[in-house]
Specification:
The complex is a heterodimer of chains A (157) and B (663). With 157 residues, chain A is an alpha+beta fold. Chain A is built from three helices and seven strands. Chain A is 29% helix and 27% strand. Chain A has a five-stranded mixed barrel with strand order 2-4-5-7-6. The chains are: A alpha+beta (157), B alpha+beta (663).
C-alpha cells in the first residue's frame, strides 16, 4: 500500500465533480435511449370492443381487449385446451380465442382483460387472459369502457 | 370493548406523535436539553400505544369478533388460526396499522439504542420520524379506521381473499413493511442532518445499521413475495414487473445504492450530499409505493382496494413529505462541506458507478410504472407497460453493474489500479468464459442470453472468491495464517463477500428461470402422461378432498425419469366456500437445481383435465441466492463497529490513506 506522499495528486475537486456530472449525464442518456426504444416496441394499448370496431388496428399489433365475458358464449374446442368466448361492452362484441389455462376468476358475466392480437378473420387471438384477485372488483379499463358505451351499472353488493 | 381500547390507543398515539414532532424539534433549535429529552420517552410511548392498538385488532381477528366491520369483511370463523391472524394485515385498514406500528418500532428502537447519538441529532431524528407517524395515524383515523363497529353483526365473516390464505402471504407483508417503512429512519436521519447542517463519518456510521436492517427485511420480503407468486398464482413465473412489485422494488434499488454510498461517507467522508439525497429518495419511493398500493390507482392484479378519498389523502401527504424534504435539501445541501478527494478509477469511483446504475435502473422502473397512470390522467389513453419494456431497459443496466461488481471491491480507496486488478481477475475472466462456452454448447440454438447470464454469474462468483481469497492471503500465507486472517476479518467484509456471492447465484437462477424453462399444456385423462425435458408426468388420479374452509380436487401425478419415479406431485383446484372463489394450488418438486411444477386446470366435463406442467432449471437458485444475499446483510449487521456504533474509535478502521480531516 502506498503512502499518501508517494501518491500522485488526486483529481481536483472541480475535476472530480465534472467527472461525476459527465458520468451521470451519460447514464441518463443511456437510460433515455433504453426507455424510448423500449416504449416504442412494448407499450400495449387498451381497447374496448367498441374501440376495436372504430379504430384501425395494425395486423399483428399487440393490444389489450377488455370487457365482460358474454353469458353463454364460452365454448371449449375439441382439443380441450382452446377456449372461445365473446367479450362485450354491451354494445359491441368481439370473439376471442385462447389456448391455455384460464384464470381462476374467469367466468361468464365477469370483467376480463385479454392481451393478444387481432386475427385477419376478426377473431382476437389472446396470448394472456387476466382476471382479477377479487371478484367484486372490476378492472378499471373495463368499467371505463362500459361507461363510455353507456352500459355502466353500479355494482350491487 | 377491546376494539374501543384499540381505537383509543390509536388516538392517544396521535397525540403523543404530535408532541414528539414539535417539542424536541424546538428543543434542538434552542439547545434546551429538557425539551429534547422528551423525544426518547415519547417515541417509546408512541410505540406502546400503537402496539396496544395493533394487539387489540389482532385479538378481534383471533376471536372472530364480527361486530367489527373490518373483521367481518376480511375474516371467517372457519379459517385456521394462522390465517385469522394474518387477516389482520391482509386488508387495507389493518395493513396501515401495521405500517405505523413499524414506523413507531423504528422510532422506539432509535430512542432506546441511540444513547450515543448527539442529543440534537437524536431529538431531530425522532421528531421527523414522529411527523411521519402523525400524518399516517391521522390518515388511519380519518379515512381507514379499522375499529369501526357493525350493528347488527353478521353470523359469519366474508373470509380473507383465498389467494392470500397462504403461508407466504402471512409473512410477506410484515417483512416488506419492516423493509420499506424501515427506510423512514434513514430519511429522518437525513432530514435531521440537513437541519443540523452537518454530515460526517459518524453520521454515516449511525445511519448504516438502520438502513442495513431495513434493507435486509425488504430484500427478504421481496423474495417471499416472489416465491409466493411463483407457487401460488400458478403461472409459474417469479417476477411480473407488476406495479405492486415495482412499488417495493424501486425503494430496494435506491436503498441498495444508499447502503453503498453510506460506506463512502463513513470511510472517506465524501459523497455526503448524494447520500442524503438517496436517503430522501429511498423513503420517498416507499411512500410512493404505499400510495400506489393503497390508493387503488393501479390497474394491477393486486389492486383490490379502490377508494379515491384515501388516494387523495396519501397524495397530499406524499407531496408534503417529498416536496418538503427536497426543498430542504435544495436549501441546505450546498452548505454541507465536501470531503475526501478521489480519482475516477478507485473504490469510491466504482461505488459511484454502482449508485448511478442502480438509481438509473430505479428511474426506468419508475417511468415504466407511472407512465401509464400519467398518460391515463392526461389523455385518457389506457396502456399497459409489461415485462418486455422492463426487460429491455432493466437488464442492459444490470449487465455493466455485474461486470463492475467484480472489479469494485478489489479497487483501493482514492486511486485504484485498474490494470493490476484486471491482472488479478484473469482467473475470473477465464471462469466466466468457460461457463459461457459450456452454457452455449449445452443450450445451442436457444436464447443467447442464457449463456451470457450464466457467464456473468460465473464472473461475479469467481471474482468475489478471488477478492476474498486475496484478502485472507490464500496462496501467500500458511494455512494457520489464512485461518487467523479469515477469523480476524471484520464482519462487514464477510458480509459483503457473502452478499455478493449470493447475488451471483441469484443472477444464475434468474437467467435459468427466464430462459430455459420447458412447459407443456394439454388436456388429459387419468392414466395419460405428458413428457417434457425427459420427465414423464402421469396423472394417476383426481380425488375430492375437503379443507377447513374449502373443498378441492386434487390431481396426483407421478413423475418418472428414465422409468424411475423421481417425484409425486399433487396440485389442487380449491373452491373456497364463503366467497365461492376458486384457486389453483400448484405442486412443486425441487431437487435444489431444478423444479418440476404441475398445475391442475379446469375439467372439461368429459373426464379430461387441462394440465400444465413445467420443467424449471435453476429456479431454486433464485431463492437460495436471495437468501445468501440476505445472510450477507445479517452478517454485516453484526459487525462490532455497527453494533457498538462508536464513532470515536477510528484508528482500527483505516489502515491506509488517512481519512480526510473532519470539519
Amino acid at each position: 500500500m502506498s503512502t499518501t506522499t508517494s501518491m500522485r495528486t488526486p483529481a481536483t475537486r472541480k475535476k472530480r465533480r465534472l467527472y461525476a456530472v459527465l458520468a451521470g449525464l451519460t447514464m441518463l442518456g443511456i437510460a433515455a435511449v433504453l426507455v424510448l426504444t423500449a416504449f416504442e416496441d412494448n407499450i400495449v394499448f387498451f381497447y374496448s370492443p367498441t374501440d376495436l370496431t372504430e379504430k384501425a388496428v395494425r395486423p399483428g399489433q399487440t393490444l389489450r381487449l377488455g370487457g365482460l365475458v358474454e353469458e353463454g358464449s364460452v365454448k371449449k374446442a375439441a382439443d380441450g385446451i382452446t377456449t372461445e368466448f365473446v367479450i362485450t361492452d354491451l354494445s359491441k362484441t368481439v370473439s376471442v380465442r385462447y389456448a391455455g389455462l384460464l384464470p381462476d376468476l374467469f367466468r361468464e358475466g365477469q370483467g376480463v382483460v385479454s392481451q393478444g392480437t387481432l386475427g385477419p378473420d376478426g377473431i382476437f387471438l389472446a396470448s394472456e387472459v387476466l382476471a382479477k384477485h377479487d371478484e367484486a372488483y372490476m378492472p378499471p379499463e373495463v368499467a371505463d369502457g362500459l361507461k363510455r358505451a353507456g352500459q355502466w351499472r353500479e355494482p350491487t353488493k | 370493548m377491546i376494539a374501543e381500547i384499540g381505537h383509543f390507543a390509536l388516538v392517544l398515539a396521535l397525540a403523543v406523535a404530535l408532541v414528539q414532532s414539535i417539542v424536541p424539534m424546538i428543543g434542538a433549535a434552542r439547545r434546551d436539553y429538557g425539551w429534547m429529552a422528551v423525544a426518547t420517552p415519547a417515541a417509546v410511548v408512541q410505540f406502546l400505544c400503537i402496539g396496544v392498538s395493533f394487539s387489540c385488532l389482532l385479538y378481534s381477528f383471533a376471536v372472530s369478533d364480527f361486530t367489527v366491520i373490518n373483521v367481518a369483511q376480511n375474516s371467517n370463523s372457519l379459517q385456521p388460526m394462522i390465517y385469522k391472524v394474518a387477516s389482520t394485515w391482509g386488508n387495507h385498514e389493518g395493513s396501515m396499522v401495521l405500517w405505523v406500528l413499524i414506523l413507531a418500532l423504528f422510532g422506539g428502537m432509535v430512542a432506546i439504542f441511540g444513547g450515543n447519538l448527539p442529543p440534537t441529532l437524536k431529538a431531530r431524528t425522532l421528531s421527523v420520524q414522529s411527523m411521519i407517524a402523525f400524518a399516517f395515524l391521522l390518515f388511519i383515523l380519518v379515512t381507514s379506521n379499522p375499529f369501526e363497529r357493525l350493528d347488527p353483526p353478521p353470523i359469519d365473516g366474508r373470509d380473507l381473499n383465498p389467494l392470500l390464505q397462504d403461508i407466504g402471504l402471512v409473512m410477506h407483508p410484515p417483512m416488506l413493511y419492516v423493509g420499506y417503512v424501515g427506510f423512514s429512519i434513514s430519511f429522518s436521519f437525513a432530514i435531521a442532518a440537513l437541519i443540523e447542517g452537518k454530515v460526517d463519518a459518524a453520521w454515516a456510521r449511525w445511519v448504516r445499521p438502520w438502513t442495513l436492517l431495513a434493507w435486509i427485511f425488504l430484500t427478504a420480503g421481496i423474495l417471499l413475495g416472489s416465491w409466493w407468486a411463483y407457487y401460488e398464482l400458478g403461472w409459474g413465473g417469479w417476477w411480473y414487473w407488476d406495479p405492486v412489485e415495482n412499488a417495493s422494488f424501486m425503494p430496494w434499488l435506491v436503498g441498495t445504492a444508499l447502503l453503498h454510498s453510506a460506506i463512502v461517507v463513513e470511510k472517506r467522508d465524501a459523497l455526503k450530499t448524494w447520500t442524503i439525497l438517496l436517503a430522501i429518495l429511498t423513503f420517498s419511493l416507499s411512500l410512493i409505493g404505499t400510495f400506489l398500493v393503497r390508493s387503488g390507482v393501479l390497474t394491477s392484479v393486486h389492486a383490490f382496494a379502490t377508494d379515491p378519498e384515501r388516494g387523495v389523502f396519501i397524495l397530499v401527504l406524499l407531496s408534503i413529505a417529498i416536496g418538503g424534504s427536497l426543498l430542504l435539501y435544495a436549501w441546505r445541501a450546498p452548505q454541507l462541506k465536501g470531503g475526501g478527494l478521489f480519482a475516477p478509477i478507485s473504490r469510491e469511483g466504482s461505488l459511484i458507478l454502482n449508485n448511478l446504475l442502480l438509481t438509473t435502473a430505479a428511474a426506468t422502473v419508475f417511468i415504466g410504472t407511472l407512465y401509464p397512470l400519467l398518460l391515463d390522467a392526461i389523455t385518457g389513453d389506457k396502456i399497459s407497460v409489461g415485462p418486455p419494456f422492463f426487460n429491455a431497459t432493466f437488464i442492459p443496466l444490470m449487465i455493466p453493474l455485474i461486470i463492475a461488481l467484480g472489479f469494485g471491491p478489489m479497487m483501493s480507496w482514492k486511486r485504484g489500479d485498474l490494470s493490476g486488478v484486471v491482472q488479478r481477475l484473469k482467473f475470473a475472466l477465464a471462469v466466466s468464459m468457460v461457463v459461457t462456452a459450456v452454457a452455449a454448447y449445452v443450450t445451442w440454438g436457444r436464447s443467447v442470453f442464457g449463456a451470457i447470464g450464466l457467464g456473468l454469474a460465473g464472473w461475479l462468483a469467481a471474482s468475489v472468491c478471488i477478492e476474498f481469497g486475496s484478502r485472507i492471503g490464500i496462496g501467500r500465507a500458511s494455512a494457520g495464517d489464512v485461518f487467523r486472517r479469515a477469523t480476524g476479518l471484520p464482519r462487514a467484509a464477510w458480509g459483503m463477500t457473502v452478499a455478493h456471492f449470493g447475488f451471483a447465484i441469484l443472477v444464475a437462477g434468474a437467467t435459468g428461470a427466464s430462459i430455459w424453462q420447458d412447459e407443456s399444456i394439454q388436456s388429459i385423462r387419468v392414466g395419460d402422461s405428458i413428457t417434457i425435458a425427459g420427465y414423464e408426468f402421469s396423472l394417476r388420479n383426481v380425488d375430492d378432498i375437503r379443507g377447513p374452509n374449502y373443498v378441492a380436487q386434487r390431481g396426483v401425478f407421478t413423475v418418472r425419469q428414465d422409468g424411475k419415479i423421481v417425484a409425486t406431485l399433487a396440485p389442487e383446484r380449491r373452491r373456497y366456500l364463503v366467497q365461492g372463489t376458486e384457486t389453483t394450488e400448484s405442486a412443486i418438486f425441487s431437487n435444489g437445481i431444478s423444479d418440476l411444477y404441475a398445475v391442475l386446470g379446469q375439467p372439461d366435463g368429459a373426464g379430461r383435465w387441462i394440465v400444465k406442467v413445467y420443467f424449471k432449471p435453476l429456479v431454486p437458485w433464485l431463492w437460495l441466492g436471495g437468501m445468501i444475499t440476505v445472510l450477507g446483510g445479517i452478517i454485516s449487521l453484526t459487525d462490532r463497529r455497527l453494533r457498538v456504533g462508536a464513532p470515536t474509535r477510528k484508528r482500527d478502521e483505516v489502515p491506509s490513506g488517512a481519512p480526510a480531516p473532519a470539519e
